[in-house]
Amino acid sequence: MVLPRSRISPFLCVIALLGFWLNAAYFCSGRITSTYVRAEEKSLDMPLDSDVFRVPPGYNAPQQVHITQGDHDGKAVIVSWVTMEEPGSSEVTYWKEHSRKHYYKAKGEVTTYKYYTYSSGYIHHCTIQNLEHNTKYYYQVGTAPTTRTFWFVTPPPVGPDVPYTFGFIGDLGQTFDSNRTLTHYEQNPIKGQAVLFVGDLSYADNHPNHDNNRWDTWARFVERSVAYQPWIWTTGNHEIDFAPEIGETEPFKPFTHRYPTPYRASNSTAPFWYSIKRGPAYIIVLASYSAYGMYTPQYNWLEEELPKVNRRETPWLIVLLHSPWYNSYQYHYMEGESMRVMFEPWFVKYKVDMVFAGHVHAYERSERVSNVAYNIVNGLCQPLSSDQSAPVYITIGDGGNIEGLANSMTEPQPKYSAFREASFGHATLEIKNRTHARYGWHRNQDGFAVEADSMWFHNRFWYPVDDVAATKS
Ligand SMILES: [Fe+2]
């Protein structure tokens, strides 16, 4: 139907004005709740006979191979694996690329544990030290004839302008969605060189009696990535495995037997909080489920740790923890508040660049927000949503585990929340030099190269201009 011109004009004017007004409101607010709505489906754990859980062939074949950084500055690697039939050897044979004849050996150790009616396989840990930077190494585990060979690349020497790319995954679990997340990370053309994992690994505790066989299947599932590049571990609530009803009263028992961390290298006294340097980044891992109040070991450690960070050596200061401090979803709301109260003034004082958390099964990126002025009597109860000394807080607990999406948000979207979306995915951070880093969030429904959210980070020590506002313009 063709309308006479005289009847079109007022109609179009009203529509155009309405559109302009809505657009203006949308962009002027600076806050984005993504309009993308993921179809609601239940996330199911992949069945035990899935190909991703396949046991490698051969008698006593090493399985569940994984690596993490083994020292403070990236010249050591901890190699871990499990043998099922017998202890075998805890030795690792390794050599530099193109130098197979000149191989080295490192001695490791083996451990086991019991959990209710479950008995673990033989869990091996071996630290390889004094590696050269920027070098590809092959390594072999197991005993003849059943050996398996993998490789990794060591990071560049610690320094302010060495490019390095991190991946971020949280709350992964072992569902079909978890598999999509890991595949997207692997296929992402922005190739992550190490994963900063923000806690909640296997979700074995969602199975009857914390079925620890699900710790084994998870480790076989992620081997395809973590045997080749280090994953830096943070503990989440699903690592606690505290179950007095079945006689299990030692918190973190499966995690500590399976996933060592280099905590002693940073003078920590427990494997749950520690730091590493990797290329241009100083990474501090905090423990949401270990004591952090005043006078506790974690509090004392962090108080001494933050002044040690030399931004002229490692410009990028990144903190990992599990329970987010700023979270506008209606899940786990304010669970991170007590830790925020304890540590946020230090994060602002020492100009932390970014804080990554998990726990909430969705994605959110904040403004540079702080709430350090509030002290219960001064009435300043609004967080300051543009504090250029404050970190950006990113929730990346969207790995795709069995508990499903957190898809209910608080309304209206708080001022401090820059972007939020309830979808599964992962993130990448390409550190270019001491001033600039490119950040992107990749939802599983998109192609591998698509960034559903992105931002250029400007370093808080070297270039502390308003980078969140620059991202919007
Ligand atoms: Fe969690």
TrEMBL record:
Belongs to the metallophosphoesterase superfamily. Purple acid phosphatase family. PANTHER family: ACID PHOSPHATASE RELATED, PURPLE ACID PHOSPHATASE 10. It comes from Oldenlandia corymbosa var. corymbosa. One of its GO terms (molecular function) is acid phosphatase activity. Keywords: Glycoprotein, Hydrolase, Iron, Metal-binding, Signal, Zinc. Its cofactor is Zn(2+); Cu(2+); Mn(2+); Fe cation. SUPFAM superfamilies: Metallo-dependent phosphatases, Purple acid phosphatase, N-terminal domain. The keyword Nucleotide-binding does not apply. This is Purple acid phosphatase. Residues 61-157 form the Fibronectin type-III domain. Homodimer; disulfide-linked. Its EC number is 3.1.3.2. It comes from the Eukaryota. Pfam families: Metallophos, Metallophos_C, Pur_ac_phosph_N. It catalyses: a phosphate monoester + H2O = an alcohol + phosphate.
